[in-house]
Amino acid sequence: MIRLIRRNAWVAGLCVLFILLAVTTKLIQPDYGAGDFGSLMRAVLPYAFAVAAQTVVVIAGGIDLSVAAMMAVTSVTAAAMMNGASESHALFVVPFVLALGLCLGALNGFLIVWTRVPDIVVTLSTLFVFQGVALLILDAPGGGAAEWLKGLVVGTVPIPFLPESVTAWIPKALIVLVICLAVVWIPLRRSQLGLSIYAIGSSELAAFRSGVSVARTKIAAYAIGGLFAAMGGLSLTLSTGIGAPIPGPYLLASVAAVVLGGVALGGGKGGLLGPIIAVIVLRLVRTDLTLLAVDPNATTIIEGLIMVIVVMLGAFLAMRGRTR
Amino acid sequence: KEYTIGISNTVQGNGWREEMICAMKAQALASGEVSKLNIAHRNTDAAGQLEDVRNLISAGVDAIVVNPADPAGINAALKEATDKGIVVVAVDQAVTEPSAYVISNNQEEYAYLGAKWLFQQMGGKGGVVYMRGAAGASADSDRDKGFKRALAEFPDVKVVHEVFTGWQQDQGKQQILDFSATGTPYQGIWTSGIDNVIVDALVESQAPLVPVVGADNAGFVGQLTSVEGLKGAAVTNPGSIGGAGVALALQILDGKKPDSKLVLVNPELWENATDEGKAKLKAAADPSLSPEWPVSISIPGWTTYTKDQIVACKGPGE
Amino acid sequence: MSVTAAGAEAVPLGKRIRRFMSDRPLVPLVILLVLLVVALQILRPGIVNERWIANTVKFAIPLAILAGCQTMTMLTGGIDLSVSTVATMAAFIVSTQAVEHGPVIGVALALLPAVLIGLANGIGVGIFRVHPLIMTLGTSLVGIGCLQVYQRTVIATGTKVPAFLSWLGTGVTGGFPNALLLFIPVASLILFVLNRTGFGRLLYAVGDNERAARLSGVVYWKVILALYVGSSLLAGVAGLLYVGLIKAPSLSLADPLLLPSVAAAVVGGTSIFGGRGGYTGTILGALILTVLTTLLTILQMPEGARRILFGLIVLLVTAAYLRIVEDR
Amino acid sequence: MLETTGAKKPVTTNPILDATGVAKNYGAVAALRNASLSVLPGEVHALMGANGAGKSTLVKILTGAVRPSGGRIQIRGETREFSSPGAARRAGLVPVYQEPSLIPDLDIASNLRLTRTPVEPFAEWVRELGVNDLSLGATARDVPLAIQRVLDLARALAAEPHVLLLDEMTAALPADLAERVVDVVRRQSAAGRSVIFISHRFVEIAAMCDRATVLRDGETVGVLKIETGVEERIVELMLGAKIEKARGVTHGARSTATVAGPPRVAVRNLAVGKLQDVSFELANGEVAGVVALEGQGQDELFEALAGARKPSAGTIEVDGAAVRFAHPADAIRAGLALVPGDRSEALLMHRSVRENIALPFSAPFRRWGPIALRKERATVTAAIERLQIDTRAQREVQRLSGGNQQKVTIARWIAAETRTILCFDPTRGIDVRTKREIYRLLRELAGQGFSVLYYTSELEEVQHVCDRAIVIFGGRVVDVLPVEIADEAALTRAAYGLPRQSEVAP
Ligand SMILES: Nc1ncnc2c1ncn2[C@@H]1O[C@H](COP(=O)(O)OP(=O)(O)OP(=O)(O)O)[C@@H](O)[C@H]1O
Ligand SMILES: Nc1ncnc2c1ncn2[C@@H]1O[C@H](COP(=O)(O)OP(=O)(O)OP(=O)(O)O)[C@@H](O)[C@H]1O
Ligand SMILES: O[C@@H]1[C@@H](O)[C@H](O)OC[C@H]1O
Ligand SMILES: [Mg+2]
Ligand SMILES: [Mg+2]
Questions:
Q1: Strand runs (DSSP E) across A145-236, as ranges?
Q2: Contacts for C244 with CB less than 8 Å, ≥ 6 apart
Q3: In terms of domains, do D51 and D194 share one?
Q4: Does residue B64 sit at the A interface (CB-CB below 8 Å)?
Q5: Which end of chain C is more exposed for a tag (fewer CB within 10 A), N or C?
Q6: Pick the CATH number of C47-325 from 3.40.50, 1.10.10, 2.60.40, 1.10.3470
Q7: How many structural domains compose chain D?
Q8: Where does the pLDDT of residue B179 fall: very low under 50, low under 70, confident under 90, or very high at 90 and above?
Q9: How many contacts does A have with C, using Cβ atoms within 8 A?
């Protein structure tokens, strides 16, 4: 019970932080409007999928250092396949790339289970492997993306019964994000598999003894991570219109946001909402600092400080809680 | 008139890019028309630059001067900017977004000039090490066209090693050391502006000093006149193009649109094989500059700042 | 419960070899290293000469020092992802400050952020019990941000690598890289600390069983604090050496060494869960990775294929090693 | 004394479960070598054996949690090998393991969903087992241990198993809950289901079991029908020899009274965990026994004295001076060190015997420097010899036998010349010979003026080693018995909080 409240308190705290930042944004830049919020959400997309990928794996008690590399592989695959192809070809490309992500993730899980090498080491190795694969597919940023796909995250859609002044604040990018995450996450949370993922993260031994197939569950968790990473890769391709073989900064960002989002490294606890809000908060911090014309490198410092301070605070509170 | 100008750049810590930023600041200051610069200058990729440009749009700038990470990758944001009436100028490298202006060195010519000279020095045959810039950057692909054009003219010259330095000094140096450790023979090195560290590497590892082509970076220009036995050529590639970009943006804001959306500056080649070339190098050398800064710190007809201003690297209000 | 004495009964040869190797875990590593060098020599006859060896050693040294940081932190069940940032900071600061203030003050200034980051890591991990991965990641972000901001303030001054560092990093005396002058003492120090000092014992103890260590009077945070400060200092020293080698300070100088430093420690047999491993294995691991890099360059494969092979080999070696050491 | 339960069920000749020749090796350790177990339908079958005999290992093998190294398992005459507990569960074998198996971070409802346990029957069983205020939304981690055990059992029962395997199910339960368990098990067998029951409590065995299989050192050494007088036989089989009455080992050598000055340790009104108000003294040269039922707060007492846990009230005095420990290091400096009951809490399993013994020497900051290897070798060797540690596998402590591991944990403090050793059930899982050695050693230490506080779960040990027995019940010291009268019966009475019987047993 206390735990439940505390977990929700963490998410609530993040929401408060977000609102404070939003207000600050409006104060700094009174012209900040719905369109700008749309930009923010588009910037959030790849980060959000990366953190979703990491979250599933961390809840299962693992860690995936290859998240960004998987995004690169899927992004260049999509860009290479769509390059010069017809608009309708993308209809085939999207499911293919999602399946590819699923397979890459499953490969991670399989290697961890099969070699019994610690997950950090396995995903460190596959990080190199996937980077290499991405470079073999495209040795330089390039390729293309179908226009309708690019249009998927631009602008807004009219939503029945909602006035335009409201829908303007619900950019397509946000809708895409929510739908993609929800389609995977909500059924997962309710399924036996989802439960098993939490179980192996909480205690592999107890889960095994409760009849959970630890190996299969672990592979599934990494596979779902791969699926989210593929969504991240796709979101990169459709926002830039190209695929980039060198992984972006999504690995560090994903680990940071997972922890800021209240998901304990070690597994078994937390949800997806916290990390997603954390990721939005981090993006908004960058926006605010740009609005203030602060050196963007100061943003790195601030992101790091937020991470260190929040995590220390969390650890401190946990410690106090334990000694009580 | 008091404009705010946004600047976006995605390679940090490269001397050329630092000079570019300083030129932008100096030009903004010298013009007297700019009240504030909003500079997003960091190491990132197209996706990161998209975010930066969009944040600059949110910040309400009047013009954006951008050195693009990718010719097409940031088009969406550039279009959003021009739709809002923001003037967009890409410097140093082209973008494919038609509503943006481009002002850059003639990159294809840059590579062609240098490569052709190099292959001549090699006697029209042998292996060349091809040290490119950042993969996917349009300056790099344009230069690749020029390089390939020259290569086609010399059928006996072969590329024995091709790498992307990412326009990072440390990477370039490591790559040449790695390569020379393999013992593969080569007769010349073409670099996309990561030049002085390559010469250093050859000297330090006591490898044979083959002809090297680079850019007009102060360090390299100095090496061409001082390093014993080094043959080489510097092709101009002014980092001050950034200042020109700011000047162009201000012109447009003031209502003086250029005839073409594309403005090219033509490069020159200074070699140390002839006395004439040596004289040019002597004249251009500027040991007071940081070795990674191009010596062409201004672009006549575009920039109006003084040397002191660009070296001070201060923008309006700093 | 009972213990069967390992003795007279006939043990199959395979098992005997395994047991032999599991008792001497360095043997398979040496074998692997030799195999790689032989492969190199076959692919390009004559390459393995004095100059090549000196060059390989030169490049393996900074990696081996950073991998030393990983080894020590991994022994306690931690990991230090801030080493590359610390190394880069030290390198960049010394190259910008030594010009004006001379080498001594330059080096001191360069190692200052190392100490600060180490302290922060130690406090976070040791006292607040933050996961080392997160803590070192966070301080690394802060550090790199500070460095980038700092870089903007020294654009006009430019950078210059102090001569003594270039000498140390690139010089070769009588066929031996000068870097050995730094590395031999540093490596001996690490080996000595790990094997012959109380502090070294405590690193293993804390990583093997923290509760047991605590009940024996070991104060966790003191050990961890000292460890992370030490690791950071070592990383700073590696950065100084590395900038002497590359002679081109940049904001991402040591970044490419971070993951290989973890890989070198892991390949060298140090367990990421703590309590097991040692520095000799790590040095071999660093050499193996360096030779492997050369081998992959020689094969003239595209960059992509090289990375794939690198990743696969790290995984393969770790898995095989695990089999050998664990299965008794 | 022992009596067999009610009317026998009709005995079918075909066992529902039949395991033969089961073996399990963990590296050099043979947890099981040749175990067999045959259970008839509707039978309650006791699995007995000393600590470490291999009972739990057998249960894990039968239920697919551990792969056997050899042997054959038949279910209803059909040879089966389960690859996972899930598979065993589907075949009707449902265990309650010795350690709680709920997923700590999931709430109870999710835990049920995970094992596909129907909620209604589960809730029914929980009430049946005497727990009335259970919330399905509670996170398992937050549920007290005893209740977790009950939930484990209820979950197993709700699965309607053909064979229920209970591994020391009752050990952590208070008496009332334990009784409920016995009731429930009886009803299972009445309904024709089989139960394999592991417990060290003869009362429970006698109350409901039909037969008992006895394991010793991983081998089945006998199968007995539970009937009057079988207890002696079982104990004999368990220990492998008739237990000699090893009375009066050395406890005549008491030197306590002769030492003048303040007591070595004085505990006054200490409150910590379940302990509310505990006071006693430990003299120089004394071995004081602590006796308490499972879970009376004895572990908290030892941890507080060792500085591993902060008391909430009361004082601890060492040599007459009040002390306050913020860390075990403080206690060690004051000369108090803990030998925990669980060896895995005390040892660096992957390190050598030598490093394990020398560990306390390196702990203080001033000892972080170079190690005086020669001195260390001398100290360690002396300690090894004194405890007669078998060091054939000394490179990694995990390769040592349990008894030798336990000796290492004690040797550490002897080498460090720690004046007061807090031994918490040090003979748990140790063979009789080693036990004797430990008794002798502790008496010897006492003779040299060292003090020992000795908690034991085996009451007869008190008369082997202790000078006095301090009995704790309900958070307080309820009695202090001089060793002469501290026999099992007296201690048991006291441990249950009953007053002393005035006359000494005949
Ligand atoms: N995973 C393991 N690795 C090594 N040894 C083990 C392992 N599990 C059990 N053992 C050893 O196997 C032997 C049998 O253990 P087991 O737990 O089956 O005993 P038990 O009869 O259940 O004892 P208890 O009454 O104390 O529960 C012990 O000596 C134990 O130390
Ligand atoms: N690492 C070690 N392991 C085991 N025993 C040790 C170790 N170091 C010292 N000893 C033993 O501990 C005792 C005290 O050691 P040592 O002589 O180092 O202390 P000291 O320097 O005389 O005392 P102090 O440092 O407290 O002033 C000696 O009996 C020595 O044999
Ligand atoms: O020559 C290069 C320039 O054109 C590029 O865009 O940035 C880095 C320079 O070294
Ligand atoms: Mg046991
Ligand atoms: Mg047991």
A1: none
A2: C161, C162, C164, C165, C166, C167, C168, C169, C170, C179
A3: yes
A4: no
A5: C
A6: 1.10.3470
A7: 2
A8: confident
A9: 155
